[in-house]
Amino acid sequence: xxxxxxxxxxxxxxxxxxxxxxxxxxxxxxxxxxxxxxxxxxxxxxxxxxxxxxxxxxxxxxxxxxxxxxxxxxxxxxxxxxxxxxxxxxxxxxxxxxxxxxxxxxxxxxxxxxxxxxxxxxxxxxxxxxxxxxxxxxxxxxxxxxxxxxxxxxxxxxxxxxxxxxxxxxxxxxxxxxxxxxxxxxxxxxxxxxxxxxxxxxxxxxxxxxxxxxxxxxxxxxxxxxxxxxxxxxxxxxxxx
Amino acid sequence: xxxxxxxxxxxxxxxxxxxxxxxxxxxxxxxxxxxxxxxxxxxxxxxxxxxxxxxxxxxxxxxxxxxxxxxxxxxxxxxxxxxxxxxxxxxxxxxxxxxxxxxxxxxxxxxxxxxxxxxxxxxxxxxxxxxxxxxxxxxxxxxxxxxxxxxxxxxxxxxxxxxxxxxxxxxxxxxxxxxxxxxxxxxxxxxxxxxxxxxxxxxxxxxxxxxxxxxxxxxxxxxxxxxxxxxxxxxxxxx
Lengths: 241, 239
Fold this sequence. Notes:
The structure holds 2 protein chains of 2 kinds. Chain A is of the alpha/beta class. Chain A has 9 helices and 10 strands. In chain A, the strands form 2 sheets. Chain A has a 6-stranded mixed β-sheet with strand order 6-7-8-3-9-10, sandwiched between helices. In chain A, a hairpin with a 2-residue loop joins strand 4 and strand 5. The relative contact order of chain A is 0.18. By secondary structure, chain B is mainly alpha-helical. Chain B contains 10 helices and no strands. The radius of gyration of chain B is 23 Å and the shape is elongated. Chains A and B meet through helix 2, strand 6, helix 3 and helix 5 of A and helix 6 and helix 7 of B.
């Protein structure tokens, strides 16, 4: 689905990513953990080029997308992203938030997009919020709508950048539940998170990043948590579990 | 009561009705409104253009080597210099330079005033729009881009509507400033409201009535503008 080859990313003097290699297969649910500053968000943001790699290649569906000849907007239509701060469009109501991209990018006509949006709102349990503005909703509701907004484009890959980190504790559950549902439906997902319960239950692969490198890459989440291989992973897990 | 009413009627009769004196103020007011309106249109259009050029140059960091990148960089540099010069010199001096130097062959004083005040206001409006654009959350811009929207689509559907909302209060101030600033039009001999009052004084040799009357007219228009902008603000906020 997506391949990262020898990815380096510097912010001025600071080396955030120092040669990351990764390949994510269709239907994989990859959870990315690591201490703050380890580069996990930067790696995720490089995947859809919200950050421009300093060097290396991002290959999405057999195309090197950080090549200057690639129409990045076209690529991003197939790669959704969910943000820590939700980032719903504050000048648009919920329905318009959902339908904007499919209409502007000519995926759907207006009435098709609206029908699809209403179906999705029913699926996430918020059909009555269609005409509300983002500020009128709770954080959990906003984040579920932000996920629905990404789903409107039928992406092949969904990127989650700490989707529950700015939620009140009682709202984390509703967002994780929706993400679990998506995972079970076969969505390919890359999730940066601190929710270890979610990682253990939903992920089929866990990456541990530290100082800009993938330190541990495990296909057995239970084994990863009970029996981490690398010393750095052991230290990290002992602090947070 | 009857006496004081009579005093007022006499006052108005002597100062404004007699010899059609009020026409100096009315005609001047008409000129003031026309100059303000057309200068506003020019300032608004040019202001948005300058703001977008500067923001696009900062966001896209285009290369000087491509033709379109060269154009954006060049226009951005020019607009920086333009804004610096306009904001750094008095409007009165700008008006006199326009009248005596740049547009010396143009004999329509109204157009000289409209161009001066419009070009002047554009510099201020550009800065107001730029700050409004920069106040839009980068997260929302990234969200739009992550869905595949192009830079221009993101600007037109997410950034500009919010920027306009953000800068409406400052923008209202600028319109009021522009309206009052047209009162220096008399420097080039254009008979606006202020100059009309001056002419009236030279006829009647009484300074207070025309000046206070013109001040009152300015004040009433400003109050109306304030109401319009408050109504606009209420309409386009969704909180």
